[in-house]
């Protein structure tokens, strides 16, 4: 199973979401986008196969995040490098649940 397939499985376990595929990413949406999978090698030199970007209403303190940005007052964008589908674990599932609930 690929990283994208594992993220898709995790999102579908939460509830219905629209999936939008573009040249640069796969977006999971409710009323707003809440999770995005993209390949960093398209934009920067990287050997990481995928990045999962998760939109949360507050900053999450986990050390697993590669980068956390605060693009607007109610949005914190958390970027997680994923090297294998096994890294989509219970902690990631929990972040996706929080992001899913906040995107309604």
Give a description of the structure:
The chain is α+β, with helices and mostly antiparallel strands. 24% of the residues lie in helices and 35% in strands. It has 2 helices and 6 strands. Strands 1-2-3-4-6-5 form a 6-stranded antiparallel sheet.
Brief descriptors of the model:
104 residues, alpha+beta, 6-stranded antiparallel beta sheet
List the helices and strands and how they pair.
Blueprint: H1 3-14, E1 18-21, E2 25-29, E3 33-38, E4 50-56, E5 67-72, E6 75-82, H2 90-102
Distance between the termini: 29 Å
* Beta-strand content bin: 25-35%
The spatial strand order of the largest sheet comes to: 1-2-3-4-6-5
Task: State the secondary-structure class.
Answer: alpha+beta
The major β-sheet equals: 6 strands, antiparallel
Helix content: 10-25%
Would you list the SSEs in sequence order as H and E?
A: HEEEEEEH
Instruction: Provide a count of the helices.
Output: 2
Q: Which term fits the overall shape?
A: globular
Rg, alpha carbons: 13 Å
- Low-confidence residue ranges: none
How many extended strands?
A: 6
Mean pLDDT: 95
Give the structure's gist in a few sentences:
The protein has two helices and six strands.
